[in-house]
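Help!! Second protein's tokens look totally different from the first
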Amino acid sequence: MAIKFEISEILNQFELTDRDKKNLAQLFEFTKYLYDNEENLTKTMNLVKKARDQIIERIQEMFESEDKSNI
């Protein structure tokens, strides 16, 4: 049984800027991509360090660039 939903529909329930919605949707898709690759998972289905580091790097790229644009 698979659960299907659109992350954008969920994000619309919150007061977010369009940029934040876009960034969060992209981050969700990237995280799904990492979890879909078995090489990124431990035996207990957690992300390996390399994959976790990739998510952290992506978050920093998306949200730190936003901070700089507000200056």
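Here's the second one for comparison:
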Amino acid sequence: MPQTLLAFLGMMIVSMYSLNTQRYEMLVQNRDIKREMEEMAGSIALETMEIIRTREFDQAVVDSSVTGTLADIALFEFLGTPNQFATGNQCAVFGTGSFDCDDVDDFHEMATATRPFVLGNDTVWFAVDVSVKYVTDALAPAAFATTNKEVQIEVKDWWADGSAFIANPITLTRVLTYEF
């Protein structure tokens, strides 16, 4: 009888050790997957910023109505509302519509874009949201048109079932400046 109890106790200890080891390995794998998803989201954010950065600073520049002086600020788009710019554009560059987002503020609160990250035969999709606002030279939010626009990109993983590996969106912020 004592040998049976000792054998049973030994099996319980081995089972507990095995389960704890498996649980630890599962947590490590989940952490690694989350880290990889954050890396991919960061890459998508950088790629999106590069697309936006290649656009003109303002529609006045696209229309060639600027003169290259400080007076150009009066020509810059500014709606004066809390949003400062038009919202909801469906930018063709991200495949959300046919609107030609040809200047930086056209991306402000655009329709959410889904961007792919291709991994061999698989693809991971990310939801991308962009906000643009004027900032002062001290990088404080401005309630008027300035020569600086802050572009903030938020990227989160996008799954059809609504699940996500990334708890908080990856955020990338840059300030783009009008060059005279």
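Reply: Different proteins will give different token patterns, so don't panic. The radius of gyration is 25 Å.
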